[in-house]
Amino acid sequence: MPFHAVVTVDLDNGVSSTARTKFNEELKKKYFTKHKLTTLWTVVFAAGAVREAAVKYARDSIDAAAAIAGISTYEAFVSISEAAPVEWKKAARETVLGR
Length: 99
Prior knowledge:
The protein has helices at residues 17-29, 51-69, and strands at residues 3-11, 33-34, 40-45, 74-81. It is an alpha+beta fold. It has one domain: Alpha-Beta Plaits (2-Layer Sandwich), CATH 3.30.70. β2 (33-34) and β3 (40-45) form a beta hairpin. The chain starts with a strand and ends in an 18-residue tail after the last strand.
C-alpha cells in the first residue's frame, strides 16, 4: 500500500514572492502537489516504501527547496499515512434574502 504525505510549510513573513515561487517550483520538481490551501502540499510514495524514508524524503525536499530559494527561516509539518487525504471546499450560498 502506498504512503501519502501531507505537508504544510510556513515560510517566514519576510520571504519575497520570488523566493516563494522558487521554493514552490523546487517542491514540484520533487513530485509534491500544491493545493489551493495556502501552505498545503502532498506527495505519494509507491507501495513498498518505508515510512521513515518517506519522512526523510519530505524533510530533505523541503530543506533543499528552501536552500535553493534562499529561505533560512521556516516551519514545516509532515504527516505520513496509508490513507489518502480528503480535500473539499465549500462556497458561500446566497440566502432567500440575498445575503
